Amino acid sequence: MPRPVAEQVVVIVGASTGIGRATAMAFAAKGARVVCASRGTLALETLAQQIRRDGGDALPVPTDVADAAAVRSLALAAQQHYGRIDTWVNTAAVGVWGRIEDITDEEFDRVMRVNFLGHVHGVHAALPALRRAGGTLIGISSAEGVRAVPLQAPYAASKFAVRAFYDSLRMELAQDGVPVTVTTILPASMDTPFFEHARSKLGTMVKPPPPVYRPEVVAASIVYASTHPRREIPVGGSAVVFLIGQRLCPALFDALLSVRHLGVRGQRTDRPDDGLDNVDRPMDGTGRVRGRHPGWVLRHSAFTRLVGRRRRPGELLTAAVRDLHRRRSPGETLTAAIRDLRQRRDLRRRPRRRPGELLTGAILSLRRRSRPSTPSSVLPSVLPSVQPSVQPSVQPSVQPSVQPSVQPSPQPSVQPSPQPSVQPSAQPSPEPIAGVR
Ligand SMILES: NC(=O)c1ccc[n+]([C@@H]2O[C@H](COP(=O)([O-])OP(=O)(O)OC[C@H]3O[C@@H](n4cnc5c(N)ncnc54)[C@H](OP(=O)(O)O)[C@@H]3O)[C@@H](O)[C@H]2O)c1
């Protein structure tokens, strides 16, 4: 069970603006200690100051997610400062808008490096700490990780990759029985500075296609996921339209988005592009949560609260599989079942005597019977003569068969002293026989 939010240490990668910033503030408002990371130092500093002013606890750590070593240092800094990590949120991303022929190889490379490899670096850095004490990984993909749209090929490809990455991770962790949960968030359009930060090759500034929501709606779902692990949470009603539409009729979606008005005009503004973006380096500034979307912005998503956060039936099965693996691997379960069966069978079966054992038993019995009752004082001298002849060749397999047949008759006459000297050689025999079987 995840800790209550107020007791958590949360790392948010991509915290300087937009959804990440709103998430850091939402966690801090509920009492979590937050580690805020991104490249823009001033924006991070103002965020930490604002959180502290409001009575919270925040640690700003400037980090570029494209640099794996820097992300590992971030994880170390979080653990050194707060002692552990409970929830790790990967939200950093950049965008390049344009037709595929107009976007360079370097731009594709950069978007994948930040939007996809950034998540890989985050998971690699966080997992050792999360594996130790349990915790939650939350990755922000997008409704575009389910359904691609025109003019955002690198971004959509990175979001598909992120979604697949977390699917693989979720299964691997369940196989290990590790108490680490993985939630993928699929937001629809949010009013954040993302569209001002994006690189546009369209000649105009870009905008989110409607309907557009406030970034706090996503932040609330991320905080929710930190204590209520879910496989995926679509945020915003349009995200579910993407999910269902893509599953039922992807070709119809292709056709609709091929219409210029819907597929292109919905994403560009009338304002000329300002030539500024955060693809290679952070934007200057103190950081903001909200963007400047001129149209209608929805404050809530009833759909997300009522439907999007619901646990799917299959999720219960994944949890059951993880619990099963935590107790015993399937291999161990099988081996244990076979061992159980064998033990029960062994208990039912009496040890079977080999023909040679019967013969040896008979000889021993005859020899003992033919011997006159011996006073206890003489026995030490008698026994050595019996034992060497029997023991070396017979000991492992003969003894159990010897015991029942030999003991009843000679022992009453021999009792006081032979018992201690005969017993030790007879006792260990049942085990070798069980082993032979
Ligand atoms: N806005 C939407 O409509 C929408 C919809 C669906 C999904 N999303 C997803 O939501 C997440 C947050 O987006 P947003 O809308 O809040 O955008 P945003 O305001 O532009 O925030 C992006 C954050 O990522 C950080 N970042 C970018 N490159 C980085 C790098 N190399 N290393 C470290 N941090 C880096 C930025 O900080 P620095 O530049 O200071 O480093 C910033 O804090 C993204 O994953 C995005 O894909 C957004």
From TrEMBL:
Residue ranges with Low complexity bias? 372-406
Stretches with biased composition (Pro residues): 407-431
Q: Basic and acidic residues compositional bias: what residue ranges?
A: 267-283
What keywords are annotated for this sequence in UniProt? Oxidoreductase, Repeat, Signal
The UniProt entry, under SMART domains, shows: PKS_KR
Alphabetical GO CC annotations of the entry are: membrane
Enumerate the residue ranges of region (Disordered). 267-292, 368-437
Could you tell me which InterPro entries the record lists for this protein? KR_dom, NAD(P)-bd_dom_sf, PT, Sc_DH/Rdtase_CS, SDR_fam
Question: What Gene3D superfamilies does the annotation carry?
Answer: NAD(P)-binding Rossmann-like Domain (3.40.50.720)
GO molecular function, a single term: oxidoreductase activity
The Ketoreductase domain extends over: 8-191
Q: Which Pfam families match?
A: adh_short (PF00106), PT (PF04886)
**UniProt similarity note:** Belongs to the short-chain dehydrogenases/reductases (SDR) family.
Q: Could you tell me which NCBIfam families the record lists for this protein?
A: PRK07109.1
Q: What name has this protein been given in UniProt?
A: SDR family NAD(P)-dependent oxidoreductase
Source species: Dactylosporangium aurantiacum
